[in-house]
Amino acid sequence: MLICLLKSIMILFEGKLVVTSNNEEVIIDEDLATNINFCLIVNGYVNKTGELTDKYYQDKDNDVFMVPDDLVEYKTAIVNILNTIYSPQQIKPENARDNNVELKFNEEKFSRKEFQNLWRNINAKTAYVVDFETEELVRKAIAKINLHLHVSKIFFTVSSGTLESIKSKEILRQGEGFKEEKSKLIEVSTSANGNVKYDLVGKIVDETGLTRKTIVQILTRINKPVFDQFKYNPEEFILKISRLINEEKATAIVQHITYNKLDDCFGTEVFTEPTMKGKLGVNAIPANKHLYDYVIFDNSKKEKDFAKELDASEEVSVYVKLPRGFYISTPVGKYNPDWAIAFNKGMVKHVYFVAETKGSMSTLDLREIEDAKIHCAREHFRTISTDTVKYDVVDSYQKLMEIVK
């Protein structure tokens, strides 16, 4: 049920151009849209049919619309987008689906000796092995769940009042003639006992990749009051407990994973098969040294600035924002590095570089699962690469040059 609901309202957010509270233009991607949708669901702002609830309108009007810390800068933009359900013209000109740039693959740059050498050094596939004690993971997951799992109860608001006057059809439609006299918050306590059946173990297995036996061990050993939160909000319980288990799993991976090089390699079709589009001046800029005629960057000014400086650098021969078809397999999902860069020989000590650009390089600012993926990437490139290839996380072009010089 949750998956269907997420899909039903995903299209409302994904691909929209918004301005954050920091006055930064951002295009809402799939991950950000999923986070927003989940926030609306768990706070009771969207019902099972994907419609906005009375609680949403009440909280919005009272200026108590709730979002988690990682969505605070998008709060106003979220409300503005939700308002377009009834005023679709409000942000229509900013819809990033009206793309006006389609990237063209540059055969000449692809055929350059510098890029071919770079590609031969990074295109090998690997398989990973994780050797950790299941009981250790179970024990640590139980401790984390008991400490951090908090599932919100589902409420709905019942309001009553009088209709004082009907001055126009528009006023009636907007509800402005209705005078609210009292409201009551009612807890929904039957969400896990209705017609919807939950394969609790199976759902968590799907989200974590662990065996049913391991998940049963975790569920049967967490504190009863913690487990009893399932009845408050089953969907949120499944998502949150899965996330906590995955975070603990990620920690175990960092400590125990190894990679083995395979005979198989990525083919050049990863560059030619996808059709990549962007909006010029929003998430796309023209480029001279990129493998394509434009660079499409993510929701980050840092990526835009990084691409501009790569393109202007005398040290850089050719670079590419790696397409999603190029990835590293990890136990916590596929990982797609950001950039592959070939420098001019003799100008730097690391001729070939694979970079991940982040706003901050502090491990405290990286989520555990993302940090685990980066660790896996280090192990992957350590396995397949020679001394000429370097993989690292950088927060700027200047940091990149500090490493390669």
Molecular structure report:
- The chain has 405 residues and is of the alpha+beta class.
- It contains 16 helices and 14 strands.
- A hairpin with an 8-residue loop joins strand 12 and strand 13.
- The termini are far apart.
Jot down its keywords.
single chain; 405 residues; alpha+beta; Trna Endonuclease, Chain: A, domain 1; 4 domains; four-stranded mixed β-sheet; two-stranded antiparallel ribbon; disordered N terminus
Top CATH class of the largest domain? Alpha Beta
Separation of the first and last Cα atoms: 53 Å
Helix-strand category: alpha+beta
* Count of DSSP strands: 14
The main sheet comes to: 4 strands, mixed
Helix content: 40-55%
**Tally of separate domains:** 4
- Determine the mean pLDDT: 81
* Rg (C-alpha, Å): 25 Å
Counting H and I runs of at least 4 residues, what is the number of helices? 16
| Binned strand content | 15-25%
* Strand and helix order: HEEHHHEHHEHEHEHHHHEHEEEHEEEHEH
The unreliable regions are 1-8, 86-94, 361-365
CATH topology of the largest domain: Trna Endonuclease, Chain: A, domain 1
Write out the strand line-up for the largest beta sheet, numbering strands in chain order.
Answer: 11-12-13-14
The CATH architecture of the largest domain can be given as: 3-Layer(aba) Sandwich
Net shape? flat
